[in-house]
Specification:
mainly alpha; Arc Repressor Mutant, subunit A; Rna Polymerase Sigma Factor, Chain: A
């Protein structure tokens, strides 16, 4: 007869693991190229694709640290990367409308004066707003998401979205009335 070994006895090495060992480096080496190719096809920008792939793997490492690894790592990585691509394209589309116009060296003096007046009116309206409202509008103008703004100004997400909607409407109505 053989002696039974209890791995939980003091002095005996514990040879049994209850969970399999997960190797982040192995996952990275295995899936990196496929994920990068997929993201690159979507973004058509090598640097953006590399950043998104890095963020996806960082999320996988965090999931591993929490002990909530997905059953299908590559599918999970593709979903995370696809969400990041969507976020990136939304930010890019939002910023496309905010590209500052090229300064025309031959700008008419009247146009320059009107532009400066419009800017000064906008700045005066922003200065008259409560601090949280002004911060929220300026952060939104910089491309921050409402959830990020909510965290920065100490409000809930829904309260921040409502604050932004009402502030934009008030600002727009005031500027329209001043222009009329």
């Amino acid at each position: 007869m053989t002696a039974q070994v209890n791995p939980f006895e003091i002095g005996e090495p514990a040879l049994i693991r209850l969970t399999p060992v997960w190797d982040a480096a192995l996952a990275y080496d295995t899936y990196r190229d496929r994920l990068y190719a997929t993201v690159l096809r979507s973004t058509r920008d090598e640097e953006v694709a590399a950043d998104i792939v890095q963020e996806a793997f960082l999320e996988l490492v965090r999931a591993g640290q929490r002990g909530t690894l997905p059953d299908n790592e590559i599918a999970w990585l593709h979903r995370v990367a696809a969400n990041r691509v969507i976020d990136w394209s939304r930010r890019r589309a939002r910023w496309a409308g905010h590209v500052p116009p090229q300064e025309d060296l031959e700008e008419a003096p009247e146009t320059a004066v009107l532009r400066r007046e419009a800017h000064s009116e906008l700045h005066a309206l922003l200065d008259a707003m409560p601090t949280d409202t002004r911060r929220a509008l300026l952060l939104a103008g910089e491309g921050y998401q409402p959830a990020e703004i909510a965290r920065l100004i100490g409000r809930s997400g829904q309260a921040t979205r409502t604050l932004l909607c009402r502030a934009r409407r008030r600002l727009r109505n005031t500027l329209v009335l001043q222009a009329a």
